[in-house]
Amino acid sequence: MAINQLKRTSLYDVHVAAGARMVEFGGWHMPVQYSGIVDEHRAVRSAAGLFDVSHMGEVEVAGPGALESVQRVVTNDAAKLSVGQVLYSPMCTPSGGIIDDVTVFRLGEARYLFIVNASTTAKDLAWIGEHTRGAQTLDRSSEFALLALQGPQAQPILQRLTRTDLSALKSFHIAAEVNVAGVRCLVSRTGYTGEDGFEIAPPWDEAPQVWEGLMETGRREGLMPVGLGARDTLRLEAGFMLYGNDIDETTSPLEAPLGWTVRFDKGSFIGREILLAQKEQGVTRKLAGFEMTERAIPRHGYPLRVGDEEIGRVTSGTFGPWVNKSIGMGYVPKALTKSGTPVDVDIRGKAARATIVKLPFYKRTAG
Amino acid sequence: MYPKELRYSTEHEWAKVEGKRVRVGITKFAAEKLTDVVFVDLPQKGVKVGYMQPFGVIESVKAVSDLYSPISGTVVDVNTKLVDAPEVVNTDPYGEGWMILVQPEDSKELDKLMTADQYATMIGESGS
């Protein structure tokens, strides 16, 4: 049976014991929900949620040529990173398509760690390895588990389990060798939910100790375990891209709202020539967000129309549990990306009305 | 969990005989599987439905599922409250969460449906 070939994280038994519904995702056996997507989603927005994202891959590039190698494969400018900083970037093909979107941690003077999507780990590892010069590429995916603690109560919860001063850890920064519940972890102030929070990387086998410690102490704030279902609705409300849905090798970062991650001023990188031409000539389509103005839920793949003409397809769509409306994104002709533009979503053969809106759908209030 | 007076389909709908009409909804088991019902798309009054043919759609945050009619006939009433309060399907699947009321063409079709005990066995739960 195919299911036996699925990989398990070190938290598999913890999830099953917690009553999680397990599904296949990117070759892994992962929890899609525990108590329910809506409950879990609201917990992250109002208190805190704990996610197992150990399925994500980790690739380290280390050696004298590390920076130059990283710069070659990412479109964003890694030269701006100090040790202990984090960068978000697409990696592109020579034709400007997106191979993956990654975060890059600068661990040391000449050490960079890529956090990559689970389903693209093998492809990314090969691509990064192929373009690394004067440095080594190491697959460290099996060494690190990865937990995400997200929500307004994330800091007080994590602070009770560590002596490291978390108020000193700024957004998009990392702290190495942080002792969390007695386990030495790499901790970054990053996430994929639109909330403040941390991503915590303990050694693979020690993740259960960190997970149980956080769940135990977080109970008083209302910390809940959160599955991939709410991870998807949270990131969509926050306007973040999901690789394989909203971006892939057929889309460019300039069509997606990722123009800010393409730094032409940094010098050469893979995809630069085509992306520069796209920037100069202008792209013909852009990823736009929309809200349904009637009751109906858009889903991945549904056609977007104006009148009888198909203008694009929904790349991501859901009912947004916190914004309390049906929301989605899709690529549409540039002329139709203005806020307030009416479009239809073809839902099972019926036209349902929607309006183009600015991304994100949800933005947390400062503090 | 599965009231004795109802009959059950393999697609997790229930049918309740009310005089000459049959009220239709989904079971507690189905509602729990869906977890968070956020949208229900039902037919208009007067529409014909067929035995074990789709009559509507129910959506949770994550999934879209067809609804199947456990009886052939004409829809004579629709629970329009579910448009604004689809979550009632989760909280009261056998009461306020009903979906359509059907004037049957052939009441004998009801004999093809399962009893509460048979349904409980099908979904792997013990009876009553």
Helix/sheet category of chain A: alpha+beta
Biggest β-sheet: strands ordered side by side in the sheet of chain B: 1-2-3-9-8-5
CATH topology of chain B: OB fold (Dihydrolipoamide Acetyltransferase, E2P)
> What integer value in Å does the Rg of chain A equal?
20 Å
User: In terms of quaternary structure, what is this?
Assistant: heterodimer
Q: Helix tally of chain A?
A: 8
Mean pLDDT across the residues of chain A is: 97
In CATH's first tier, which class of chain B applies? Answer: Mainly Beta
Order of secondary-structure elements of chain A:
EHEEHEEHEEEHEEHEEEHEHHEEEEEE
Major protein interface: A-B, 18 and 12 residues
Shape of chain B: globular
For the termini of chain B, the CA-CA separation is 7 Å
CATH homology group of the largest domain in chain A: Probable tRNA modification gtpase trme, domain 1
Low-confidence stretches of chain B: none
- Strand order within the widest beta sheet of chain A: 11-12-13-10-4-14
* CATH fold-type name of the largest domain in chain A: Gyrase A, domain 2
Descriptive labels:
heterodimer, A: 367 residues, alpha+beta, Gyrase A, domain 2, Alpha-Beta Plaits, Elongation Factor Tu (Ef-tu), domain 3, 3 domains, 6-stranded mixed beta sheet, 6-stranded antiparallel β-barrel, B: 128 residues, OB fold (Dihydrolipoamide Acetyltransferase, E2P), 6-stranded antiparallel beta sheet, 3-stranded antiparallel beta sheet, 4 helices
